[in-house]
Design goal:
The structure holds two protein chains of two kinds. By secondary structure, chain A is an all-alpha fold. Helices cover 79% and strands 0% of the residues of chain A. Chain B is mostly helical. Chain B is 78% helix and 0% strand. The chains are: A mainly alpha, B mainly alpha.
Chain lengths: 254, 256
């Protein structure tokens, strides 16, 4: 556990010392949020759109999810850079449990995810959004976001361990938007065009987004929040197992 | 053909060779505008039911945004590539050659303008196959001029940042300017549909005129009333960012 915490602290320090890597996952989603809200606010009047205080409230979950996915890519790039630079091999040769190498990174990813969710919620409140479920709702959004962010970090780690170079991990950047666009993150599922509406029903991001959105736009609905928590936990669990397996595969190759 | 023109062509060919020889680096930039067009129209397609879209499909409305996004990505990539060349020392060797610096700058910017046609062509092909209205050759010619011009503007910006920062880590700064310039316009909705600060910003953002110049062929017929503001805005941006890039280019390495 001490090793995991030490590696997590190291990963966090590295992230804070290279803010140019952190900036895209905050700045791009913030700008997209601003543009979506400024350009598409009138869509809340469309038949079938849920009752919301404002389009900003509806879009907050989308911005959080986008930011968490980009953080997963950044975590993957950071790991790939350590592989390219040889630091990863030195860690693997150190007398520490190898699973700590994965867990340390994921713990750092979880902490960064909490900061991201809090940033977007506070920014939303500053610009006029309301969290209908109050402080409890705020905590639920943070919890779902932290679990999902850890899972996306694990996906980034799997990609880095398989690809072994940063530019290939960077190349999946557009895919982040593809998986987001085929979910209900940006718009209600019932208003998506075909076939995005059908795919969105099977996309775990839809449930994570809806789970985070529910406490923001309405009183807590246990089913939406539990589905969000379950989807986030499933992503985190599966991706974490895959990242441990990818690490073992990489160490066998080495 | 003058020596300077030959050098510009050589630099353009070098940039084009990079696409063929390192496709992994170019593919995301080519695909991204198409992914955005398909994704945004799948997600926000019903927005076109609002009256101020005048029955234009959201897909058709958003295609010109993809053209300008492609131009902006390409321009920024020119800056990132220059930063890489600076880091690896190749640009210093170029500066030592007897080529005028303005010619080197012209080569970099011309390569961005030519490369910007790649994502635009791919996007146009996918869009037309997917049912977007064919705008006609004249509208496409105007769109090509505006796309190449905006790519040149963004390349000027990328070059300015690269010469100042001298590191690829400045890439987000190069990319974010284009992101803001293209999206803080009537990208998602006509002027009547924009709310709050975006309505104000889009009115003063010159790229709004460029976007509407590209869009007119897709949503209605070409008119001089929408064409000249686009050309004048683009010319202004080229002069402003061109001056900044020339200044940076002429100062590079002077104090060293």
């Amino acid at each position: 556990m001490r090793v995991t915490i030490a590696l997590a602290r190291r990963a966090l320090r590295n992230s804070l010392r290279r803010p140019q890597l952190l900036a895209p996952m905050i700045i791009f989603p913030s700008l997209m949020l601003a543009v979506n809200v400024g350009g598409l606010s009138h869509t809340t009047t469309l038949p079938g759109f849920p009752r919301v205080h404002g389009f900003l409230d509806f879009q907050l979950a989308a911005a959080i999810l986008q930011s968490l996915l980009l953080a997963g890519v950044q975590l993957g790039i950071a790991v790939a850079l350590e592989i390219e630079g040889g630091f990863f091999d030195r860690l693997a040769a150190a007398p520490i449990p190898r699973v700590s190498i994965v867990l340390g990174r994921l713990l750092a990813g979880g902490v960064i995810a909490i900061a991201q969710v809090v940033y977007f919620l506070v920014a939303g409140l500053v610009f006029g959004a309301q969290i209908q479920a109050g402080a409890g709702g705020f905590a639920l959004v943070v919890a779902i976001g932290a679990i999902a962010g850890t899972g996306f970090g694990a996906i980034g780690m799997v990609l880095a361990l398989r690809a072994k170079n940063a530019s290939m991990v960077q190349g999946i950047f557009p895919l982040v938007f593809v998986v987001l666009f085929i979910s209900s993150a940006f718009f209600p599922r019932g208003l998506l065009s075909s076939p995005a509406d059908a795919v969105a029903a099977y996309n775990p991001l839809s449930y994570i987004a809806d789970g985070m959105r529910n406490p923001i736009i309405a009183a807590i609905s246990p089913s939406a929040v539990l589905e969000g928590l379950a989807a986030a936990a499933a992503v985190a669990l599966v991706a974490s197992v895959l990242s441990v397996l990818a690490l073992r595969g990489r160490l066998r190759e080495a | 053909m003058s020596e300077n023109v030959r050098i510009v062509i050589a630099l353009v060919r070098r940039a084009l060779n990079e696409i063929a020889r390192v496709p992994g680096a170019a593919i995301p930039g080519v695909l991204a505008p198409t992914i955005f067009m398909i994704g945004l129209s799948a997600v926000f397609g019903r927005a076109a039911h609002l009256s101020f879209y005048h029955a234009t499909s959201f897909r058709t409305f958003i295609v010109p945004v993809g053209f300008l996004q492609g131009a902006s990505f390409t321009g920024a990539a020119t800056g990132v590539n220059l930063a890489r060349d600076i880091e690896q020392g190749w640009f210093d060797r170029l500066l030592l050659s007897p080529t005028p610096r303005i010619t080197l700058l012209a080569g970099l910017v011309a390569s961005a303008a030519v490369r910007a046609l790649m994502p635009a062509s791919f996007l146009l092909a996918v869009a037309v196959l997917w049912g977007v209205h064919w705008p006609g050759l004249l509208a496409l010619l105007l769109a090509a001029v505006l796309v190449m011009g905006l790519a040149a503007v963004m390349a000027f910006w990328g070059v300015t940042v690269a010469l100042r920062a001298r590191t690829q880590q400045a890439a987000p700064l190069m990319q974010i300017a284009g992101f803001i310039a293209v999206l803080f316009t009537t990208a998602y909705a006509p002027r009547q549909g924009l709310t709050g600060w975006l309505s104000t910003v889009s009115r003063i953002n010159p790229v709004t005129h460029v976007l509407e110049g590209v869009r007119q062929g897709f949503t209605e017929t070409l008119s001089w009333g929408q064409t000249w503001p686009a050309l004048v805005s683009l010319a202004g941006l080229l002069v402003l960012f061109g001056a900044l890039a020339v200044r940076s280019m002429l100062r590079t390495g002077v104090s060293a």
